[in-house]
Specification:
Helices cover about 55% and strands about 5% of the residues. It is mainly alpha-helical. Strands 1-2 form a two-stranded antiparallel ribbon. Helix 1 packs across helix 2. The longest helix is centred in the N-terminal third of the chain and has 27 residues. It is flat.
Length: about 170
């Protein structure tokens, strides 16, 4: 059975019932008025709800709960460093954990990476193998924050990639 046959059967089954329902609704003057009244009320309610939702202010994040990172347009590096230092001091006074995005400007081998992030509670690492004149995948490593086992996770991914390479050969 093709698509056209299926739609033809569906039309034959549904349209007669729909036509009877429309005819029943519009047959008497009282029914017609009730149908028009219900349509007008529903349209008016939709219009009022739309206007009310459009004028409702959007919820804003509490500026004290989010720290923006990076220089603003026209800001000098010295002013940025001073402002960033003040923000970091304010963060130290807060209760609870603070999250930060850390990016390195150069490639770090796994042993150097583990040493560089040993003082931090690490949750997720995005890494890419560095190969001269080559393009490699960026992998996401989820780390247990208590143990910071980035080196072990990197070895597991390297083993998995080696296995994939063997499979492809």
């Amino acid at each position: 059975m093709g698509v056209w046959d299926l739609t033809r059967r569906l039309d034959q089954a549904v349209l007669p019932h729909l036509a009877r329902a429309i005819t029943w609704c519009t047959r008497g003057a009282v029914r017609r008025r009730a149908l028009v009244g219900a349509t007008v009320c529903a349209s008016a309610g939709l219009l009022v709800a739309s206007v009310w939702a459009a004028h409702e202010p959007l919820p804003r994040d509490d500026p004290a709960s989010v720290v923006r990172v990076g220089m603003e347009r026209g800001q000098s590096p010295g002013a940025y460093a001073q402002a960033a230092g003040q923000k970091l001091e304010q963060l130290g006074d807060r209760a609870g954990e603070t999250y930060a995005l850390v990016s390195f400007s150069a490639y770090l081998a796994s042993d150097r990476l583990v040493g560089a992030i040993s003082e931090m509670s690490t949750y997720r690492v995005h890494a890419r193998a560095w190969i001269p004149h080559g393009d490699t995948d960026v992998v996401e490593i989820t780390v247990n924050p208590r143990s910071s086992n980035v080196g072990a996770a990197m070895r597991q991914i390297a083993d998995r990639k080696d296995e994939q390479a063997r499979t492809y050969r």
